[in-house]
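Hi R.,

Here's the chain you asked about this morning:
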Amino acid sequence: MSKKFKAMRGTHDLLPEESLLWRRIETAFVDICRRYGYGEVRVPIFEATELFERGTGFATDVVQKEMYTFPDKKGRSLSLRPEGTPSVIRAYLEHGLSRKSKVSKFHYMGPMFRYDKPGAGRYRQFHQVGIEVIGTPSPQADVEVITLLWEYLRGINLKDVGMRVNTLGCKNCRERYSALVKEFLEGKLGDLCEDCHDRFNRNPLRVLDCKVASCKEAIGDAPAIDAVLDEECIAHFDEVQQYLKVAGVDFYVDKKLVRGLDYYTRTVFEVFHSATGVDSSLGGGGRYDELVQELGGPSTPAVGFSAGLERIVLALKAEAAHADEAASMDVYVASIADESYQYAFALAGELRKSLRVWLEFESRRPQKQLASASKMGAAYTAVIGEDEVKKNTVVFKHMESGEQAEVGRDEALSWLKNRLGGE
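And the predicted structure, written out as tokens:
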């Protein structure tokens, strides 16, 4: 008996019906990025491991526990990308893109890889969309990034979403805050989970991001970053909030929000699906003014976000906000006689210049072909037999009403387009 293969744990197949929904939300993302002036960048799926150790952060859970890392045939350590930002920055530096424009704006899309515990909306191969703005420290850039994410999700008909924002201050503020949080946590170690014990030593701020109930309770009265922010960082965050109100983004300030990566400075944000609470993150990001320099470039401010497509799809389904994504056809071409198949084949080619057309491959009884047309959601069936070939016509049957019309072959495409446009 031959072995039956299954998709690996933490991966999943996208079948045609699901792929249509994915294509719709991917297309919507590309469209809004173009309207905001972002150019697409496509980066490799694997990179030198050190890129993520330095970029994502050696002390992060992602690098310590979740990366798919392996040696190549020359013994070099490579890793499948766990996120997109370090790769985009690497490409920005490698190709000297700063020389083309003072401010660079990119968008990207594709699979990422983390060895995480699979769950609802959480896979080991998952998919992200994201943007990066490189070259400006302006608070308005932060707001543009947040607004684009907000408008993207609203534009694909998600309504039950919320936005929370915070600031981590500059590098100096963040270091002072980290020390303050660590001092606070010293008296709470008995209440923290095993992972947070490790985070306490590597990166105390990550404890604030833990979703374990006992940890969330332990950090309830943790100090806020306000106590260590300098005037410049306060002014930056005040301006971000002011312009978010102008942009019409519905947000609130969450002083415990830190995000899970080490490179964030100043503004951080997260968008979540309100129906399942703030733990249901759809995406987020923030400013990372030290990362370009950390990866070998000059001191360069930057800001961006990423969003998970699997989680967005789950949210759409929870709200029933997605349209009927059935693999429907405009017209099903049915040949009811062997002698008419060549005629039907040529007609299908003509109609496919503008319409979605299914051409039956085998000769089957008319009733079965009509049943197939109805099952796949075709609006019309083109019925072609010997009489239609002789008269150079096509009989179109409207599948919902059952009405039929005989149309000259030369007028078939325009006739159908007029009817489908009206529907």
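The mean pLDDT is 90.

Let me know if you need anything else.
M.
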